[in-house]
Amino acid sequence: MAFTGGLIGDRIYSDHYKGNFAQTPVFIGTSDPDFHVPVERVHDSATILKSMGAEVTEKIYPDMGHTINSDEISLANSLVFK
Question: Cα dist. 26→35, 52, 63 in Å?
Answer without folding.
Answer: 23, 12, 23
